[in-house]
non-specific serine/threonine protein kinase (Vanilla planifolia), 805 residues
Amino acid sequence: MITNRLCCLMDFLFLLPSLFLLPFSFSTLASTDELFFNCGSSIPTISIDGRKWMEDNFSFPTTTSSLSPTYADPNVPSIPYSTARVSTSPFTYSFPVSPGLKLIHLHFYPAEYSHFTAVHAVFSVTCSRHTLLKNFNASQTAEALNFYYVIQEYWINASSPVLEFTFTPSSSTSHAFINGIEIISSPDVFSGNKWLITNINKPTHYLIDPNWAIQTVYRLNVGGQFIPPAEDSGRLFRSWEDDAPYIYGAGLGVSYGADSNVSIHYPLSLPEFVAPAEVYATARSMGPNMRVNLNYNLTWILSVDSGFFYLLRFHFCEIQYPITRVNQRVFNIYIQNHTAVRGFDVIQVSGGIGVPDYKDFVVIIPKSGELDGFTDLWIALQPNKEHKPQFYDAILNGLEVFKLEAHGDTLAGQNPIITKKQIGHGEKKRPIPEPRHSKSRTQVILGVSYGVGGLAFALLLFVLFSLLTKYRTKSFPIPSPHHSAEVKQSSPLCRRFSFADLELASNGFNEAQVIGSGGFGKVYSGTIDDGKTTVAIKRGSSLHGQGIQEFHKELETLSKLRHHHLVSLIGYCHDSAEMILVYDYMSRGNLREHLSGKKKLPLPWRRRLEICIGAARGLHYLHTGVKPAVIHRDVKTSNILLDEQWVAKVADFGLCKDGPEGQGLSHVSSAVRGTEGYMDPEYMRLMQLTEKSDVYAFGVVLLEVVSGRPAIDRANTEEENLVEWVRLRRREGMMELVLDPYLRGEVAGRCFEKFVALAEACVAKTRVERPAIGNVLRELELAFSLQLQEHAELEDDNVHADPRP
Ligand SMILES: *[C@@H]1O[C@H](CO)[C@@H](O)[C@H](O)[C@H]1NC(C)=O
Ligand SMILES: *[C@@H]1O[C@H](CO)[C@@H](O)[C@H](O)[C@H]1NC(C)=O
Ligand SMILES: *[C@@H]1O[C@H](CO)[C@@H](O)[C@H](O)[C@H]1NC(C)=O
Ligand SMILES: *[C@@H]1O[C@H](CO)[C@@H](O)[C@H](O)[C@H]1NC(C)=O
Ligand SMILES: *[C@@H]1O[C@H](CO)[C@@H](O)[C@H](O)[C@H]1NC(C)=O
Ligand SMILES: *[C@@H]1O[C@H](CO)[C@@H](O)[C@H](O)[C@H]1NC(C)=O
């Protein structure tokens, strides 16, 4: 009997396409507010995707401040996150707007702003009569989501000529902050038919009140990749996330793109602003094996706040041959284990291959008894057997989940819970989703728990966006190669060698194989694993006291760390009196050798920049990627090694110290150690070590790189110390003399200025004046892009100036 009823329902649903023809008209686009507002910024700015952000020229009581984060992670884009409006008392922004539906993005980067610490940012946000957030703990939300920052998205129908956003701290000890506000006029994306899924498996018609506020909770490009705001359709600046982290179990199905001869054709009934073509041009289906397909459900699990109504929008489009006709692929859609549609056929609904369509359903998520106030929303697709389609399979191209303000004027829910998994893990935020198809079951569960925060529709992790805009190709996201390696944490796979092994490896510590030497002894090249792997073997001869301690420190530190820009330790030998460490062989030696021009040809500028960026990444990892932070204490050009591909690797951890946790204020006291010319004067004076001492030494490295001169130049009669020598040039206004003569004509002007200014900031006399290594890294990348940019302009000019072919 139930089946009967469902079949009727199914027939009824098949009538829907004609109803879907009605809703859209572009007349709603008449009002065109497009406001990007950079809170706390005194100047207008342009973000990396080309959007113009207005300055914060509102006048506020003096109790609110415009502040910048004390430490800004380099993975966080500077606009709008490098400034914020912060206050311990309520404050309100009033924006004049035209009437109609507005899409709102609120940007929050939970960081320390002057004396306002991130953990005390707990506040409410209202927009006119709507409560958007209540007791919102920005750092908890970002942490639970494992995002650097949080973007909350809302849709509000502006009925009065001003939209007022009020930020109210939750208690006398907390403060409120906001980094950016976007207000974009939106066409009417929520009209059209909605079907309420009830627990009797009988969807009924459902109306959305135009005066409700709506919050976007998830927006997934199913089977596709992250789509950044600038590539959204309809100039709505939405982000679309990869769906893979939300798939249940190992049943990932297959994700695929449109056949090359299929293009997306929007029917009249479906304007392009509903979703960009890129969403429809990728999909996930169950897979080629029909027997397998019949035995599982393609399932997504999305964690949502309980006690709300949710609108689920499914986007469909058939994009591959041979599916062009009705009854080739027919499937059932379940929401919360209730039947939403039985016998859904995309071609029948859309009208053909390459033609998109979408379906809306509303589901009630009752208040759960769970303590944390979250419920898993189950969405499942299952092949439909009754219709005997040609293929037992299902398909989905996109999925959006919106929270409705159906009862009362509030959308506020709980802060997502930081699961145990993430506490004290010592792991950095993972800005890049795990690689597809490699998930094990446990990782999927982890992914889902991250999803909890989807609640706070934290659109995406930012790196991703900045990386994608930088490195993105049309069809595949390419995370920066540096980046993918950044987070890799070691299993301490450190091998133990016998003395005989290493004697064999180095041909009996053959003098002809010595590649370096120092106070500790000598470094030999050698091979292990039957000649398959070339290694560097550092043999401590006649070690005592300090020397032994340094070897131990290096072994202890390096066996715990693995990073693309740190030299890797392969193993060690501790037989009898011998202390020997075995490393990856760095075939191109150290950076110093490539600057002096004595042993090797001086490096071109661009390569020098790349090496500096690599080394900065290595240091950034030491300072922020591990807990407790590691202070290297002996950063210098001869400790930056280069592999065959010129990848920079920081080496020599014999002097390193576990640093203070957190940034800036704390320090470790210890006997002053380091290398002359690189030593932080403040550290020498106060005997207090902080990460900023590494920054000082790295500044000296930068000066060596740009000038080609050594840190201490005994031959220089005027001034031995490179830092002092550069200061002299600065005072004389002769900075061009700082440039390595080998680099003349090669370095772009703006790049040179930025680079030298950065190096000078790093070697500032006091540590508070020096930037954190993350900012150094960011500035280096900026300098690099200036170089590329100016170089390209130069080439353009040449094209114009030089008419020869
Ligand atoms: C702020 O600046 C914008 C232009 O950037 C201007 O339209 C607006 O009137 C200014 N507001 C105030 C309060 O000065
Ligand atoms: C906010 O969340 C953080 C966890 O990230 C927590 O340490 C802090 O105590 C919370 N703040 C308040 C006021 O509850
Ligand atoms: C916004 O609200 C007004 C007044 O309630 C209503 O007439 C209008 O249709 C609404 N617009 C949208 C796009 O919902
Ligand atoms: C498009 O390409 C597919 C193979 O990729 C082929 O099977 C199909 O016939 C082609 N269709 C048209 C209309 O050319
Ligand atoms: C749906 O069914 C699965 C088992 O098939 C169960 O684990 C899950 O909790 C159910 N979901 C809901 C919301 O009832
Ligand atoms: C698929 O999901 C539906 C609804 O929850 C359930 O009745 C059915 O048993 C599931 N099928 C499989 C193979 O898990």
Notes: Residues 1-30, 420-492, 661-666, 796-805 have pLDDT under 50 and may be disordered. Residues 336-337, 378 surround 2-acetamido-2-deoxy-beta-D-glucopyranose (ligand 5) (CB under 6 Å).
